[in-house]
Structures are given as C-alpha cells and as structure tokens.
Amino acid sequence: MDDIRINFFGDFKCDDTSSLLIDNRLKNLLSLGDINIVNFEAPVLSGKRKKIVKDGPAINQDVLAPKYLTDLSFNAISLANNHVMDYGEDGLIETIKNFPSGVVVGAGLWEDVYRPLIIEVKQKKVAIIAVTHHEFGVLSDEIQQKNRYGTAWMSHPAVDEIIVDTKRECDFIFIYVHAGYENESYPLPELRTLYRHFINMGADGVFASHPHVPQPWENYKNKIIAYSLGNFCFDNPSVNNDLWYWSLVMSLEIENDGSLKVIPHFCYFNSQDRSLSLMDDDKTINNHMNKINDIFSDDQKYLNEINDYCKRNIDKYMANFSLFGFPSLSWKSVIKQCIKRLFKLENNIDHHVLNNIRCESHRWLIERYIREKRQLR
Questions:
Q1: What is the DSSP letter of 294?
Q2: Of the candidates 93, 81, 14, the residue with the CA atom closest to the CA atom of residue 54
Q3: CA-CA distances (angstroms) from residue 297 to 15, 196, 211, 218, 330?
Q4: I need a labelling partner for 264 at 20 to 30 A (CA). Which of 11, 84, 290, 338 fits?
Q5: Which pLDDT score, from 0 to 100, does residue 291 have?
C-alpha cells in the first residue's frame, strides 16, 4: 500500500472566488492529497434571505465557493461551525446542495449531523468526524431538535460512542473541531483536555479551527493535536491582526506500517492581490510559531498566558452578566447595557448572555477568570 496523505486546512470564507489566486506550491500540495479537508465557515447566499437573530455577526460567502473548492480537490468539507446557520435552515440546505454528494460532514438533519464522513483510500477506510462548540445552530437535544437542521456539538455524549463505533469499522479516525477563543495564540486548558480525550477514545488525530490565528500543536500518545489551523482564507475588511492572514496546513502522511507523520506548512492570504501561497520559509511566522510552541510546552508559562488573556477579555462578558445579578467590572459598562435595554435592544443582550452560558469557549474563560481572581478551586 502506498502512503496516504491528508491535508488539513483551516477556515474558508471568500466573498469572490473568481479573483482568488492559488500559487503552484499550494496547488501541488492539494494534488498530492488523497483527502483535503477544510472548514466552510459561512453559508452561500444566492438571493435574499433573512439573517437569524444571534450573538455576533451573520456572514455569508460566494455561491460559487463550493465549486471552487471541489475543483481544487477538496473532498471533505466541514460545516460544523458557528456561522453556517447564520441564514437559517434554508441557508444551510442551499449550501449543502451546492457541494457534491458525499463530501460534507458535521451538519444537516439529526440523523446526518453526527454521522462520520468515511472515505476509502488505498484499501483503507478513513473517517472524519466534524464538531463545534455550542453556539447558535448546534443540535444538542434530540427530543426537541430531531427534525431540525443544524451542526454537530463537540460535547455531546454521543461523540464518544461514535468514535468507539467508528473505530470498529474504519482504520483511521480524525476529529475536525471548530472551537476556541478568537484571536488568541493559545487554547484554553479545558479544550486541551477535551482534545486529548478524543485521542484516548480512539481518534488518530485532532485538528481544530475557529480562533482565526494559528495556535500550537503537540504530539500526544504518538498522535497529533493541532489546536488552531487559523484562517486558510477569510475575507474581512476590518482586520487589525496580522496573524489573521496566516494559517497552518497540516499535511499528514499515513505510512505503510500505520504510523503517522505530520509536516506543518505555513500558508499566507494576501488580501490585496487576492492570493494564497505556501510560505514555509518565512522567518516571521516561523519565529512566532516556535515561540508559542515553546511557551505551550512549559505549563507555567502557558497558564500565565491563559490567565492574561482571560483578564484582557473578561469585561465584554461581565457587563452583560451584571444585568442578571452577576458582579460587573465597571459602572460605565453597566450603564451602557442599561441604555440598550431602554432602547429595546434587550433581545440582543439576552442572546449574548445565553451564548456565553452555553458556549464552552466563552463559559470556560469566564469560569477561569473568576476562579483565578477569587482563588476559588
């Protein structure tokens, strides 16, 4: 049997694929991939459709994006993310219909959403399970949501069962997760525990997206966990973070003896000339990734970084929680939220609070900040 190559890419959201250029090194990498997987971050939108009411922005992308990706040899498309339901069930249904049959994973009706994507490659079965943290659109309650469309939840108890059952049928299982705190270089420790748990249950690797920047990777029990691949391509006119344009492409080789070898690549999206390029030799991104991987491998330095960014980001949560009886950080923030109530924007506030309670990435940050500040255990 020849080696099997799987290329894991990060988030894709493109407003105009007709102007998007791919360099030859990246084309060659894709051509060598038996499986190329990417997260399709937002639904396509071919006509007028109403946005859902949610916390955060509602986004969409080029209706030709599915064809663009499949023409580039992407044959595993994760829809398990926090934006694919931004235009409701109709938006998700239209998006799925724009992809060929048998490439989408992590979204759909209940009976489909938790079903692994199984691809036979060189007489081996490779399974992809795609899940996301609990934001709007997640299917978490079969009794209430059995006939609804949505996305797969990473913390659903069924995920463990699915990994075990799939392991009996397939030779290799990889988990593609959409979760984490955005624009920070390190995963929350709770996510680290969960991803390692997936390995313990039988997964052969975990690859994650959502934070919009590359994060460290590690070898755990001879398996690879990549905590954030970053943005493969993500159009956003208001970016103020240079790392937004960098992503990891994890090229995994399954060798004849079943052993796994991972080669990390660095990809850059030039938003000015609309080009995607492999830039493995770039000193800036290499130095940055070496630095954060070194810190990640030192438990105390890593926890210091986590506590620092929990403190930096806590104010946006506590101001709204103060309206529900929780302590706030500043009267200014409380007054601002009260004004919103007066102007009938309380529904938006309620959605914000609900999202912060049930989305693990937000809730864990809040819990960690409170524990550290009050020294609670």
A1: H
A2: 81
A3: 38, 15, 20, 8, 36
A4: 84
A5: 98
CATH topology of domain 4-299: Purple Acid Phosphatase; chain A, domain 2 (3.60.21)
**What is the end-to-end Cα distance of the chain in Å, rounded?**
52
The CA distance from 232 to 248, in Å, is: 8
Taking a C-beta distance cutoff of 8 angstroms, is the pair 43, 61 a contact?
Answer: yes
Please give the DSSP secondary-structure letter assigned to residue 129: E
Tokens at 242, concatenated: 């240079």
pLDDT of residue 322: 54
Tens of pLDDT, residue by residue over 67-76, are 999 999 999 9
Quick one: pLDDT at residue 56? Answer: 82
CB-based contact 140:187 (threshold 8 Å): no
* Positions in the chain whose pLDDT score sits under 70: 1, 319-349, 376-377
**CA 234 to CA 21: how far, in whole Å?**
14
**pLDDT tens digit string along 164-219?**
999 999 999 999 999 999 999 999 999 999 999 999 999 999 999 999 999 999 99
* CB neighbour list of residue 41: distance below 8 Å, 6 or more residues apart: 11, 12, 13, 59, 61, 81, 83, 84, 234
Nearest CA-CA partner of 340 in 319, 312, 362: 319
What are the structural domain ranges in the chain?
4-299, 314-374
| Rounded-to-integer distance, Cα 79 and Cα 89, Å | 13
Q: Name residues whose C-beta falls within 8 Å of residue 234's C-beta, 6 or more positions apart in sequence.
A: 11, 12, 13, 14, 41, 212, 244, 269
Other CB atoms within 10 A of residue 143 CB: 5
CA–CA separation, 117 vs 173, rounded Å?
10
For the full predicted model, state whether its pTM sits above 0.85: yes
What is the spatial distance between Cα 149 and Cα 128, in angstroms, rounded to a whole number?
A: 20
Q: Give me the pLDDT at residue 346, please.
A: 47
pLDDT at 344: 46
Residue 308 CB: number of other CB atoms within 10 A?
Answer: 12
- The number of beta carbons lying within 10 Å of the beta carbon of residue 369 is 19
